[in-house]
Amino acid sequence: MTAPMLVTDWFWVPVPRPNAETRLFCFPHAGGDAPAFADLARELPPDIEVWAVRMPGRGGRFTAPHASDVNELVAWISAAMRPFVTGRYALLGQSLGALVAYNVARELSPESPPDACVLAALLPPHLWNGPPGPTGQQDVVSFLTSIDDTVGEVLSHPDLRDLVLSVVHADLNLCQDYLHRWEPLLDCPVLGLVGNDDPTVSGEEMTGWARSTTGPFSVQVFDGGHLVVQAAGAVLARTVADFLRASAGVA
Questions:
Q1: pTM for this entry
Q2: Which distant-in-sequence residues (6+ apart) come within 8 Å of 142 by Cβ?
């Protein structure tokens, strides 16, 4: 197997495929990082190469400063992506990553429009009652354990717990003052993904993302919870691959 490749501080390629026809830039959920997409990269066919975004303030970029808000993060990632979107490319974001991916796609569209966009596990902004994340009296720990049944072991270690919670808080704070405007719209196919056990958004609610584009829109529901990209595994990878190929006019 080809060794993973670090392209820049911002991008990690779990499975390098230099002859791939499509680069799929993947944006992680709150508290997540690039390795969240390693399994997806292995499951996708050889014509699609995953470029996972390495978020600041964690992992190999632990010392990099967190963005102050969504707009600043979008500006940073858009600038980092520009040299690498000269060919066919698409974006995929999960949860908070879906909001960032969607706005990066809009930022890049005037000069380098994406071929497709995949948005997973995020309530459309016009349905928000507040920023994504814990609501009411629910604290961050109970929120995390409700969406990821593997996180409990990590949170049981005091040092890891403090690190994880600081990163999650920083990510959730990005949305505190987010003001959404639908314009400008995307002009590419958009696919919504959601787990049937996601406590944060339903398949019906995901259809609200149809407002994000002048292109075709569809939603796929999978078995799984909030972290649907990881939960649905190979089944989701096939759906994404078929969607990207159809968007490119490839059977």
A1: 0.93
A2: 134
